[in-house]
């Protein structure tokens, strides 16, 4: 059978996280783990090279790829890493031009023709969910089939591009195999979560739903769509059991925004975790309009220790403009409920929204300080390809459509009436005002005392944080 190597291309932590690289997330790509498992299930020899997470340079990555005598290289890319993926594809072709280079991921799905025209070193693009598409693509290539009949592809046809019919979303996610963690050497110990998002190590990330029905203008939903689909409670708990029993994982980071949306399944997951008594701690993301005190209490008893809420702004007018569909009163109430349940709270904010002013930024910073938050992150508003705001961003300010800058930390969008300097100064000020308070400093000291094994990682993260907020431009 043919060999396929799935690759997350080289991209430095400095480019991904800027001065916060010391607190960076180096967890493996969940998409590649699923694709590799699916290809292997269907008889193909699958391998994974995690160049980004492991900090590999291009030449080392190429050497790792060719250790497996590849017939295909399946490369994933975000908007930030698409140029890196193209460099890698070119180097693969220079080494052996018979290797078929397949590009997939959020960026390609959002703007397939523009991406393929710009980067001729990609032979084929996979649009949308890739598990079924990659299997059919490999089977067709191995059996001289017609790629034009396969849904979900963008294909070169001479000097032209052809996009095949869009593949329907996978209805029954339970039929997918568990991620291929065994293809990652030294998993999980060489992969690290963000410095402030774990209690114990080793840790692993999982995604247990796909799709989102919300309409936030800054989100790209092109890969998984507008309808939420779930892995069953049994599938989720079985996956967590494998991570714990086979790989020694002690902490799970649940990464999907819609984890708490389907209450019946959420209750079943929590009840099963309590029944299994695995001793796992876990964290998740949630919307403030999807939890209540009873659910939060159950989550706490099942091992949840932190919930990250997408808050975005402390100004109702801006929340309405970005179609967040939440109220400030909801945010305050739910954060209070979460703390009362014994779960730590983290708030994710953005600065530089369309229609933002210095006054609204001040209000947001003060709001973050006033509500019941233990942790805080603030990013730059970024109009990603595929989002509603992407094509109209210039109507609301100055937009630098440079894909290589879209890491949520660089300033690529400046709203009308604001300057780059104001946004960058307020960003640092927000971090300072939130974290350099006695109550927050004491809470971190308590965290370290409760689990001193994490001292080194938290200390490195704290140093990275200080360098960022006090750096001089």
Task: Give keywords.
single chain, 473 residues, alpha/beta, Rossmann fold, pyruvate-formate lyase- activating enzyme, 2 domains, seven-stranded mixed sheet, 39% helix
**Uncertain runs with pLDDT below 50, 5 residues or more?**
none
* Mean residue pLDDT: 93
Number of extended strands: 17
Tell me roughly what share of residues is in helical segments: 25-40%
Largest sheet: 7 strands, mixed
- The oligomeric status of these chains comes to single chain
Q: Which CATH-level-2 architecture of the largest domain?
A: Alpha-Beta Horseshoe
- The number of helices is 17
How would you describe the overall organization of this protein?
The protein has 473 residues and is an alpha/beta fold. It folds into two domains: 3-163, Rossmann fold (3-Layer(aba) Sandwich), CATH 3.40.50; 193-470, tm_1862 like domain (pyruvate-formate lyase- activating enzyme). The chain contains 17 helices and 17 strands. It has helices at 13-17, 30-41, 51-54, 58-66, 82-95, 106-110, 112-118, 131-142, 233-247, 263-276, 293-301, 316-321, 328-340, 358-370, 420-435, 438-450, 455-470; strands at residues 3-8, 45-50, 72-76, 100-104, 124-126, 153-157, 160-163, 203-206, 209-210, 229-230, 251-254, 281-286, 304-312, 344-351, 375-380, 397-399, 413-415. It has a seven-stranded mixed β-sheet with strand order 2-1-3-4-5-6-7, sandwiched between helices. A six-stranded parallel β-sheet has the order 8-11-12-13-14-15. It has a two-stranded antiparallel sheet with strand order 9-10. Helix 14 runs parallel beside helix 15 (420-435). The longest helix has 16 residues, at 420-435. It is globular, with a radius of gyration of 22 Å. The protein starts with a strand and ends with a helix. The relative contact order is 0.10.
């Amino acid at each position: 059978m043919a060999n396929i190597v799935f690759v997350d291309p080289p991209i430095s932590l400095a480019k991904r996280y800027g001065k916060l690289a010391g607190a960076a997330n180096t967890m493996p790509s969940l998409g590649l783990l699923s694709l590799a498992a699916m290809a292997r299930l269907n008889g193909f020899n699958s391998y994974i090279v995690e160049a980004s997470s492991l900090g590999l340079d291009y030449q080392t990555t190429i050497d790792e790829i060719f250790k497996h005598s590849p017939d295909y290289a399946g490369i994933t890319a975000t908007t930030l890493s698409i140029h890196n993926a193209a460099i890698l594809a070119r180097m693969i072709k220079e080494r052996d031009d018979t290797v078929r280079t397949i590009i997939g991921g959020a960026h390609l799905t959002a703007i397939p023709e523009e991406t393929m025209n710009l980067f001729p070193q990609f032979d084929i693009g996979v649009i949308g969910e890739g598990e079924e598409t990659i299997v059919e693509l490999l089977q067709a290539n191995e059996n001289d089939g017609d790629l034009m009949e396969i849904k979900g592809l963008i294909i070169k046809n001479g000097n032209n591009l052809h996009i095949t019919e869009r593949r329907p979303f996978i209805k029954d996610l339970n039929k997918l195999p568990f991620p291929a963690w065994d293809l990652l050497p030294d998993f999980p110990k060489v992969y690290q979560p963000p410095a402030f998002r774990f209690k114990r190590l080793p840790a692993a990330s999982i995604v247990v739903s796909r799709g989102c029905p919300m309409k936030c203008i800054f989100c790209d939903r092109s890969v998984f769509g507008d309808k939420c689909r779930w892995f069953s409670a049994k599938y989720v708990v079985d996956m967590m059991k494998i991570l714990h029993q086979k790989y020694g994982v002690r902490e799970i980071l649940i990464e999907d925004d819609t984890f708490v949306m389907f209450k019946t399944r959420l209750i079943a997951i929590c009840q099963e975790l309590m029944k299994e008594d695995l001793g796992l701690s876990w964290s998740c993301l949630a919307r403030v309009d999807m939890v209540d005190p009873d659910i939060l209490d159950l989550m706490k008893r099942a091992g949840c220790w932190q919930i990250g809420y997408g808050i975005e702004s402390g100004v109702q007018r801006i929340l309405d403009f970005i179609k967040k569909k939440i109220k400030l009163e909801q945010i305050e109430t739910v954060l209070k409920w979460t703390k009362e349940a014994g779960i730590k709270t983290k708030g994710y904010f953005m600065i530089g929204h369309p229609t933002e002013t210095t006054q609204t930024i001040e209000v947001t910073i003060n709001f973050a300080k006033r509500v019941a938050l233990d942790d805080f992150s603030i990013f730059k508003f970024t109009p990603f390809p595929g989002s509603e705001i992407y094509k109209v961003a210039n109507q609301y300010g100055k937009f630098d459509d440079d894909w290589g800058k879209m890491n949520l930390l660089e300033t690529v969008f400046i709203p009308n009436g604001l300057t780059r300097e104001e946004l960058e100064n307020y960003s640092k000020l927000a971090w300072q005002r939130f974290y350099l308070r006695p109550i927050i400093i004491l809470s971190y000291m308590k965290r370290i005392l409760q689990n001193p094994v994490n001292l080194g990682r938290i200390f490195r993260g704290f140093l990275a944080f200080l360098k960022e907020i006090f750096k001089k431009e």
